[in-house]
Amino acid sequence: MDREELRRQLELSHADGFTWALHCCDRDARTAEDVLQTAYLKVLDGRARFDGRAAFTTWLFAVIRRTAAEARRRHLIERLRLVPLNGREPLPEQTAQGLQDAERRSALALALGRLPRRQREVLLLVFYHGQTVDDAAGILGIGAGSARRHYARGKERLRELLARHEALE
Amino acid sequence: MTPPLNDAELGRLFADLRAADAQWVPPFAAVEAALHTGRRRRPRVALWWAAAAAVLLAAAGAAFLARRSAPPPPSLSQWRSPTEFLLRSPGDALLGLPQVSPAPWPATLNWQ
């Protein structure tokens, strides 16, 4: 795949890539932008090579996840800020779409944040990004059986947390 | 107590979150433009490392040259203690061993 085609694929997957980066960075929008930039650089410079064995978005998700993990490991998140995009603020907890909707989203985000990372990642990939459990396993670099276990346990735990939150309301 | 959410309800919750997140996606063009700016900034980091390496090399070179240009240490037979003068006393000339005079005849004198 040549550079122009890579660029086109990145543009097509951009919204998905950003929201996945957002989840890999604990919903920190600015860090997600930095991670996304670094991942795009890896793709365009050829440091990350697409071999066509999976769908482009699936492969890109794995690159983004690895980039976010590297940033976390090396505590480079502050230094990764290549160029801040103008006029962008961190995600607010609530939007103007209605207090009840915002409350439900907030409850979901909170519950997801309480799940173990693997479980959260599998659930986000399946429910949020519409990947299959097998594709999620490929993105996370784990076996399909392991991904299914994380998926089942994650769903169970998420339901408990959401029910608990609802009971407290 | 309400029954736990089924998969479809969970899916709707996630879809709602996804729709809310979509408004925060930065335009691709902006990220791409930042990439090019970021790429130009990368060599600056490399330059700092190169400058630091050059300073270290220069310091190591200067230390090496300083060691080479220092005078060689004196040989053991020529060495004098810096506190040797403390051993001298005014009567040394009288109390010390007499100097042995050289032979009164030339060393090349042939006796035969």
Indicate the low-confidence ranges of chain A by residue numbers.
Answer: 76-84
Helix % of chain B is 55-70%
Please state the average pLDDT score of chain A. Answer: 84
Distance between the termini of chain A: 52 Å
Count of DSSP E strands of chain B? 0
How would you concisely characterize the structure shown here?
The complex is a heterodimer of chains A (169) and B (112). Chain A has eight helices and no strands. By secondary structure, chain A is mostly helical.
Please explain how this structure is put together.
The complex is a heterodimer of chains A (169) and B (112). By secondary structure, chain A is mostly helical. Chain A has eight helices and no strands. In chain A, helix 3 (29-45) crosses helix 4 (56-73), helix 6 (117-128) crosses helix 7 and helix 6 packs across helix 8. Chain B contains three helices and no strands. Chain B starts with 6 loop residues before the first helix and ends in a 17-residue tail after the last helix. Chain A binds chain B through residues 7, 10-11, 14-15, 18-19, 22, 29, 33, 36-37, 40-41, 44, 82-83, 85-86, 88, 91, 95, 97, 101-102, 104-105, 108-109, 123-124, 127-128, 155, 158-160, 162-163, 166-167, and chain B through 1-2, 4-5, 7, 10-11, 13-14, 16-18, 20-26, 28, 30-32, 34-35, 37-39, 41.
